[in-house]
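INFO  loader      accepted 1 record
INFO  loader      residues=373
INFO  predictor   begin
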Amino acid sequence: MRIPHYAPPTHVMQMMRYAEEGSLRMLWGSATNPAVSLPELSRIRSVLAQERLFLVVQDLFLTETAQLADMVPPAATWGEKTGTFTNADRTVHLSEKAVDPPGQARADLDIFLDYARRLDLYWDTDAGHEPAHAGRAANELTLTDWGPVSKQPIFKTAAAALPRVAETDRPSPAPTTTALRTGSRARARHHRREGRTRRRGSASIRRGRRVMRIGLLLHELHQVETDLGHELLRVSERHKVDHEIYHVAQDLARWSQWHVRILADIGERFGARLDPDPVDELKTAERLRDKASELVGRKPQVALLLLRDLRQVYVEAAGLSVDWEMLAQPAQGPKDTELLATVQSCHPDTPRQMRWANAKLTSHLIWRVGDSR
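INFO  predictor   done
INFO  writer      dumping tokens
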């Protein structure tokens, strides 16, 4: 089995569904009690109590979930270990150890590192987290590069702020080194006025053509972003039982809706009147068609329908990414900072939508092939 190289975090209800189906055979929970906190408690408890599921619960107390576990590593609480808390305002607070943990309890990180050492995924060396000439750890998501936060302000004040890097959208002014003699200044001004008069007509024509081209590109982008957002919402509605598809598709659809509103705002500069909140005209007709197909017994299998929907999302996102790159070209030429900032803000979301669709498509194809053997 090949694990997809990209996917958003899996929803906890989707994890439970994988465990229920048997494709997920081990769960490791830390400081959480899903046997009490999740919806559909009777179903969740039956899933956690399966014999084929190996359940590890890392907690301070023998909670309801820990009572169903196959293994319960005792963890230390916040006053029994040294660590940090990061606030939403980017402030890192230091929490120092006050007392030793009781018995065999250990900090969460120590438990994870011990597990990694036993799997030969972690090395204690002077040079760093891995020895020289050694392969990388299996978990490529492990952070190995840390931001420039010094320990000094943390240990002195118990808190340190992470500053944002200053940004600017203006190029540095070019230095002027040319000097004209007094006698030639009048002639130079006369020639400049004549040149400006001759160039004014051709420049206005070029500007009109550029505005028209950008307006057409904005129309195309607005339409494709609208179609992609509506398609993601339709995929979410069709596959409500799959929690990951349902929630992630809605999040990705909100990205496209946000892009549509931005395009509608900037389109006025280029003579493009774009609707910031277009209506999905195909939604009602599609529901009627699906209902009619269901009544006559022609409703396709859910798995095949999901593959078709993911393929459609991938194709639309791939074409949309090309459209954003086309819009970036006329924005870079005359240094239209507002248009260029729009492209730089919106375009990165489109490849992420495309990679998500491709990852889900690949993973579902793998499971389909596995089921057919």
